[in-house]
Amino acid sequence: MCKDMDKKGVMCFYVHMSSSMHYTISSKVSEIFDLYTQLHDIRISLFSPTGDLIYPDRVGRPNCRHCIMLRQTLGMDSSCRELDRKMMQTSLQRGGMVTYTCHAGMREAAAPVFVGRELAGYVMLGQFRSEAAPERSPYADQWAEQQGNGELQLEYEQTAMFPEDKIETLLSMFRHLMEFIMESHLIQHKDYDLLEPVIEQIHAHPESDISLADAARLAGRSSSAVTRIFKRVTGRSFKQYQTDRRMEQAALMLRNSPSRPVADIGVALGYEDPLYFSRVFRKRYGCAPSAYRGRP
Description:
- Strands 4, 5, 6, 7, 8 and 9 form a six-stranded mixed β-sheet that branches.
- Helix 2 packs antiparallel against helix 5 and helix 7 crosses helix 8.
- By secondary structure, the chain is of the alpha+beta class.
- The protein contains 13 helices and ten strands.
- It has helices at 27-40, 65-72, 77-94, 140-147, 151-158, 164-183, 192-204, 212-219, 223-234, 238-256, 262-268, 274-285, 289-293, and strands spanning 2-5, 11-16, 22-26, 43-47, 53-55, 98-101, 107-115, 118-130, 161-162, 187-189.
- It folds into two domains: 2-189, no CATH class; 192-293, Homeodomain-like (Arc Repressor Mutant, subunit A).
């Protein structure tokens, strides 16, 4: 992993995810992760799609002492890594965060990280205990027999411990943090900067029908190049990205203006035909605009 400065003067990490592409991770991500860790004493790690540790380095913020002793002294490093990989794959299969208790009695969570619709890696947090966990480390007796002391148990007791309702709150907070990170493009494809003027225009004026030629002028690239880059960066076509942005704005307007006619919202977003607007909205959200508005 190498470091460089982006055009806005923000330090970014260029993380090689494969031989053909890489992503940039703003230093603000590490700042957010560090603040979360300092506040809750919960370690956050970022991995590549192949399971290689990207952040943090093991020297700068090592695993909790209990886990280090299990991995290094009791020789459990390979089994711990294998469990990490297994839970990463499980989170990918389920398409979201999974939580679990590891063999050492620690609560952990894993979630896939997508940029556009492309897997950029995984995030894991953990090495804390639930108040419902056993009072003794599952390996306290084995350690005492091999090492002749109770140091492992002492370190187990020093790990952060929370009641179950607090754990749910911590995980929910982390989900929101990850949504903020991704929506703010703090983890993004290396070619995102090329499309940033176009994406900003689409988000600022979702009602406008920006042509591919207009997008090409904003990006300073050919129309064919913009088409290719858009698909690679966002996982969607240029036209689909515009449509999705309009539907997101429509959903927001339906929620925030409950008395505004649906047809009026459609017109405000460039849809003169209310039936066509309803059909596009239904395709995106699985229900008519009026039904969406009535959802709890």
